[in-house]
């Protein structure tokens, strides 16, 4: 029973196949790492699953039924939120505005600013952030901004959360903080896709991994059955020798 699934997905750019018949299935309450070398097709697969690209073959299924997402907003309306490496929010607007911007207006046509701010504070406290929501978002660290972006994506969508290299510019403590949030969401039943180049982080947080190489699916496995060497071998298609410590 997959929440979101790709079946035999093909994506062609010019002469090259970025994805060549890829299967991918995401379950409720799991953190599913998507791994592969640069150019393997990870972002392309995610973009197809979230409506940013249309597949040239194969299909996407939502709760078991074929679905065509016209664009990311359409996917979002079906419960699928995405957070990218670069924070895609507005640094010059307040934290509260960033959280609630672009939402349906109420039937009164407006929402009181004080109510938005109260809601924003309560929401962020649930993510462990005790901050001034009237301050401009850009005055906070990238880590805080990423958690605001996640809170926004979860509140807007709520079923699937895609994290495409969210930790690229975070320090160790900030990564831990982010992982606390991710763990909490997973326990609430969210299905989470996690893309990163850091194997340590994959082993710290993921339940399953899917590995792509040159646009092809190499495998999907529970992480508990894999060693680091296994993962690297699957990613590269060969063994590499680590220099002795
Ligand atoms: P990854 O995220 O694993 O690094 P991508 O999905 O970004 O890989 O890229 C997979 C392949 O598709 C690469 O060869 C890349 O150059 C190509 N590609 C991705 N997006 C485009 C695009 N918009 N136009 C042309 N080629 C693209
Ligand atoms: Mg890349
Ligand atoms: Mg990528």
TrEMBL record:
Domain of life per record: Bacteria
Stretch forming the signal peptide? none
Q: Which residues form the ABC transporter domain?
A: 4-239
Q: Which family does it belong to?
A: Belongs to the ABC transporter superfamily.
Q: What is this protein called?
A: Simple sugar transport system ATP-binding protein
- What residues of the intact protein does this structure contain? 9 to 253 of 514
